[in-house]
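== Folding the chain ==

***
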Amino acid sequence: MSLTFFPPPLQQINSEIALHTGVELYVLRLDLMHPWVNGNKWFKLKYNLLEAKEKNFTTLLTFGGAYSNHIYATAAAGNLFGFRTISVIRGEERLPLNPTLSFAVQQGMQLVYLNRETYRQRNTPALHEYLQQRFGEVFIIPEGGSNLNGVRGCTEIVAEAMPTAGYAYAFNHICVACGTATTLAGIALSLHQGQRAIAFPVLKNGTFLAQEIEKLLTNYLTSDLPAPYSSPASWELVCDYHFGGYAKVNKELLLFSQQFREEHDVPLDYVYTAKMFYGVMDLLKQGFFCRGDRLLLVHTGGLQGNIGIEERSQCDLVKPKTRYSVS
C-alpha cells in the first residue's frame, strides 16, 4: 500500500446551466489524493494520527456504521502508519461482511459490535473507560473524526490543498456535503470574510447541525490550536437535498450521479457528494447564485461506499430512455 499522497487536482465543470447563469463551477478532487485514505477523511485523521504517534499510542479505536467511510479510511491509515486498529461498529454482526468491513478486516482492523442503544453512548466517559479496560491503552478517535484535531485538518482543505493559497480566494462560495459538520467548521475557519461556506446536510432535518457547527467553532477558537483567522467566515446550511436521510437514495439520485459522471468525468458517492452536487445544480436552475459567482465544490471522497449502496438499493443503473438533465 502506497504512502504517497497526491495534491488534489482542481477540475472545472463546463456545464450548460452554469454558462447560462454566468456562474463558474470548479471541483476540488480530494477523492484522487490516495486510493484508500482520501477525501475529507484524510484531513480529519491527519492530526489524530500525529497526536497518537506523539503520545506513543500503538492502537487506534474508533466508531462507525457498517458502511462508514471513516472506518474504511481509519483501517487503511492505521495499516499505512503502523497502528493497530479497532472499530466499534453500530449494530449486530452480519455475515458475510459487506465490502467496507471486508476491506477493514483485510487491513488488520478488529471489529467489535455494539447494539444500537449502547452505541448511542459512544461519546460518554463511561463507555470510553469500559473500552480502555477491555482493550488497554487505546487512542480514541470519535465517529467520523469529529473532534478538534479533525477540525484542524479541515482548515487545510481549501487553504493548503489548492495549487496556490492565493488562488483559493478567487472563489466566493465553497460548497460541501455535511454529516458531522466537522468539515464545514474547518472550512469556515479557513476562509476570509468575503467568502461563504455552504453546507448540504445529508441527514433529514439537518438544521440541528447549526448548533453543532457553532459548538465546534467556539471550542476550536478557544483552544490552543492554530486558526487561520480569528473568526469564521459566514456559512449556511441548505437542508433540502437529503433524499430522505442519511444513506437514503432513490433512482433520481442514482441517475443524476451516473449522468454527471458520463458528462463531466467526475464519479460521485451517493451518501455525500451526489446530494451536494445535485443541490448545487438545482440551485443554479433556481437562480440562487449570482452572475459572476465562482463556486468551489469539495469532493469529499467516499466512493467505496457506492458498492454497498447499489447492492442495497437494487436499482437498475442501466441508462434509461429518459435522462435527468445535469447540464
Q: What stands out?
A: The CA atoms of residues 198 and 297 lie 10 Å apart. The two ends are 38 Å apart (CA to CA).
